[in-house]
Automatic annotation (TrEMBL):
Homodimer which binds Holliday junction (HJ) DNA. The HJ becomes 2-fold symmetrical on binding to RuvC with unstacked arms; it has a different conformation from HJ DNA in complex with RuvA. In the full resolvosome a probable DNA-RuvA(4)-RuvB(12)-RuvC(2) complex forms which resolves the HJ. Mg(2+) 1 binds at D7, D141. It comes from Micromonospora marina. The gene is ruvC. This is Crossover junction endodeoxyribonuclease RuvC. Keywords: Cytoplasm, DNA damage, DNA recombination, DNA repair, DNA-binding, Endonuclease, Hydrolase, Magnesium, Metal-binding, Nuclease. It holds the Pfam family RuvC.
Length: 175
């Protein structure tokens, strides 16, 4: 399974692509950070993000997209930009006909480190180890996106298989 993970942000949007199977180590395919200029018009920033994510989906042909779920932050302006970037990421996956799953930060932390309370340094260390990278992915947005992709391979892949099996059972078919 190939998963494109997105750590949404309007100024910096992390994107990570991994391949793997539940219960097995994942392999790095690529990672990126899509930047937009805070001085640019919002519509142009969202358009740039949309085009960039669409291009990455086309280039890497993932089986699924995993996006960090927007959670309440103290800075309303920051959460608005993150929510807008998240919507663009979800749309990029949907436009390509891919399943899109959102995960809370604590779900991703628990999947990757074993603790939903892990800090950024612990997350980056585990992503580096799990993907057997010679050095940590930088900036942190890229490491977070890779963590989302790993989380989906390990958790979402299992969920998808269970959902498919349940759907086949409802239809009365086996495969």
């Amino acid at each position: 399974m190939r998963v494109l993970g997105v750590d949404p942000g309007l100024t910096r949007c992390g994107v990570g692509v991994v391949e793997g199977r539940p219960g097995r180590p994942c392999a790095l395919v690529a990672y990126y950070v899509v930047y937009t200029d805070p001085e640019d018009d919002l519509a142009l920033r969202l358009l740039h993000l949309d085009r960039s994510l669409g291009d990455l989906v086309s280039e890497h042909r993932p089986d699924a997209v995993a996006v960090e779920r927007v959670f309440s932050q103290h800075n309303v302006r920051t959460v608005m930009g993150t929510a807008q970037a998240s919507g663009v990421a979800v749309l990029a996956g949907a436009r390509a006909g891919l399943p899109v799953t959102t995960y809370t930060p604590s779900e991703v932390k628990a999947a990757v480190t074993g603790s939903g309370q892990a800090d950024k340094k612990q997350m980056t260390t585990m992503v580096t180890r799990l993907l057997r990278l010679p050095e940590p992915p930088k900036p942190a947005d890229a490491a977070d996106a890779l963590a989302l992709a790993i989380c989906h391979v390990w958790r979402g892949g299992t969920r998808s298989k269970l959902a498919e099996a349940a759907q086949r059972a409802r239809r009365g078919g086996t495969r």
